[in-house]
Design goal:
Distance between the termini: 56 Å
CATH topology of the largest domain: Tetracycline Repressor, domain 2
Oligomer: single chain
Radius of gyration: 19 Å
Order of helices and strands: HHHHHHHHHH
Length: 203
């Protein structure tokens, strides 16, 4: 791992380099991303790049970390509403609406990096896997709160449902990205809601 900055100026430079790398990877993929282009966009000299990062893989690990934070931080308001059935429905509608707005482009940024980088670098795979773990934990906590409040039965296996729900979301995003059709995500998440609904107590 490159040298950690000890001054605010250094931290600002490192953030600028990572932000430039995020742009380059988003546009050209990890294989097409060059340190020279990152340096031009930052802007930062090659000596600065190697001051903060050991090599390209080290920089890509930082990109994976930053991507994970961006994706999860962007969903904090949605995560906060996962403790009720109405909150689950609103979250589903919001996720689908976002894909409609994007015309099905982009998919999940974490999953995209897993395909590009996670299969070839175990350190990066661990970073991205940890992001999925945190995502799943938010869903699990919401479902547990629903069980505690009586919206789901006490015997609900919230860990199993959380994994299933995240898998439905990721599969729906992948199909939406491939087909440029947000209906794939709508159907996948409706399936997840239907499964969760089987654990609701009788009215």
């Amino acid at each position: 791992m490159g040298r950690a900055p000890t001054t605010e100026r250094g931290r600002s430079t490192r953030r600028r380099i990572v932000a430039a790398a995020l742009e380059v990877v988003a546009e050209k993929g990890s294989a097409g991303a060059s340190l020279d282009e990152v340096g031009v966009r930052a802007p930062a000299s090659r000596s600065q790049l190697y001051h903060y990062f050991d090599d390209k893989n080290d920089l890509l690990k930082a990109v994976a970390e930053a991507t994970s934070e961006l994706v999860l931080d962007g969903q904090q308001a949605l995560f906060a509403g996962l403790d009720s059935w109405d909150g689950l429905v609103r979250r589903t509608d919001a996720l689908v609406a976002f894909q409609v707005q994007r015309h099905g482009n982009g998919g999940c940024a974490i999953a995209n990096l897993m395909g590009q980088l996670g299969e070839h670098d175990d350190d990066i795979r661990v970073v991205l896997s940890s992001a999925f773990d945190r995502w799943e934990a938010h869903i699990r906590d919401g479902l547990a709160a629903m069980a505690a409040s009586g919206e789901l039965r006490p015997d609900t296996d919230v860990a199993w449902l959380a994994t299933s729900t995240l898998a439905s979301l990721q599969g729906g995003l992948a199909l939406t990205q491939a087909r440029r059709d947000p209906k794939a995500l709508r159907r996948a998440l409706d399936g997840a809601l239907a499964l969760i609904a089987t654990y609701r107590p009788p009215a």
